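Standup notes
- DV: blocked on the single-chain target, sequence here:
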Amino acid sequence: MIIIKTTTQIEGIRKSSKLAAETLNYLTPFVKPGVTTQYLNDLAHKYIVDHKAIPAPLGYGGFPKSICTSVNEVVCHGIPSEEEVLKDGDIVNLDITTILNGYHGDTSATVPVGNISREAKLLVERTKEALNLSIKALKPNKYLNDCVGKVIEPFVQKFGYSVVRELGGHGVGLKFHEDPFVFHFDIHRNDVILKPGMTFTVEPMINSSREAQVYVDKDNSWTVRTLDRSLSAQFEHTILITPDGYEVLTKI
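- DV (later): unblocked, structure below
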């Protein structure tokens, strides 16, 4: 059931989304070779708590950390660890979700570690561009699939990339995950009609090969990786549908 947010709820979601974006902005300069993903987690946790908010992932469904750190072939839900040391040439997605006064804001970005390959650089740039192209298409009374899946999939496929199909965006705001589910590939049917007051994430997960298959680590039941170990990148914003278009709530 899709929740149309009230003016009061939208303002609460807007403030939490701003904090999520500020946390990501704060954390990004610390991404360097030799840094552990646990160190990034601890920095983010302290920043969020110091701003009188809660890191939403911590304890959610049993998730053990405050943010997700997904390195190289990890598509999403990477668990920060003292044993995971970033090295020159890696890419890492930092996924931040905050709860501020009961409201959720959700954002992520893929960040280069030191000097990355041309292949990795292009994947990161094109994934970000795919997200931005999709967001620009969002308007009230349009179908969600027309703005997201039909925009993102053909754009990335022309580079030989693939869209992860098992995972997608989601409604967000009053809860961490709400309706609707947001497909990042063309589902070849009309789905949700966009209405003012809807809040949801668009967060394409793009693999650098034509192979879109992924699997979940057996040892932690969270971390999702590409089956062929190709690189994967992701960018995410929380979006509000407005009477005349959209507002990116996690943009600062």
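- Follow-up: The chain has one domain: 7-248.
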